[in-house]
Amino acid sequence: MTLLILFAARGGVIELLNAGSEFEFRYSLWRDILEVSSARTLEGFGWVGYWRQDIPPFIGIDQFAAPHETALNAFVDVLLQLGIVGLFSFLALVGLAFVRSWLLAATKRSFVFVWPALMLVALIIVSAAESSILVEFGWFTLVICALKASQNLSWRERLPLPQG
User: Are 130 and 72 in contact (CB under 8 A)?
Assistant: First the structure.
C-alpha cells in the first residue's frame, strides 16, 4: 500500500529529495545509449568493462560535463557492450544464480546458505543505479554466489550412480 502511494506521488517525492537533476541526467544518458546501441542491437560493441573514453561508441555518448565510466545501470551497460544476446545471457546468469541461491537458502536454513541470496538481492538492486556488478568486486561476488548456489544445488546430484 505504501509503495502504491509513493508511486502515485513520485513527482512530489523526487522534488522533495531534489533528485530531479540526477534522474534527468541518467534518463538522458540511457536514452543516448539506447540510440547508439540501435546500430548494433544483436551483438553490441564489444566488452570493455569500464568505458574507455578514447574508443567509439563511448566518445559519442560522453556528451556531459563530467566524464563517466559506466552507463549507471548494469543492464543498459550490458545491452550497449554485448547487445541483446549478451543481455539475455547476463539475465540468465543472474536469474539462475538468484533462483538457485534462494531455493538453497529456503531448504538449508543456515546463514551460510542465506548469504549468497542476500548478496544477489543487493547486487540486483544496486544494478539499477550502478554498473558495479559488471566489474571488480561486484563481478567477483556475482560469480562466487552463482558458483556457491550451483555447487550445493546441482542437478548432477540427482543422477543415479553407475553400478559397478
Answer: yes
The model's pLDDT over 101-115, given as tens digits with 9 standing for 90+, comes to 988 888 887 788 889
pLDDT at 109: 76
3: helix, strand or coil? helix
Structural domain boundaries in the chain: 2-155
* pTM, 2 dp: 0.78
Neighbours of 149 (CB within 10 A): 24
The DSSP secondary structure of 15-72, one letter per residue, reads HHTT-HHHHHHHHHHHHHHHHHHGGGTTT-S---SSPPTTSTTHHHH--SSS--SS-S
47 contacts 82 by C-beta, under 8 angstroms? yes
More confident residue, 77 or 67: 77
Give dist(CA 55, CA 49) in Å, integer: 13
Kindly state the average pLDDT of the residues 138-150.
90
- C-alpha dihedral (5, 11, 13, 18), degrees to nearest 10: 170
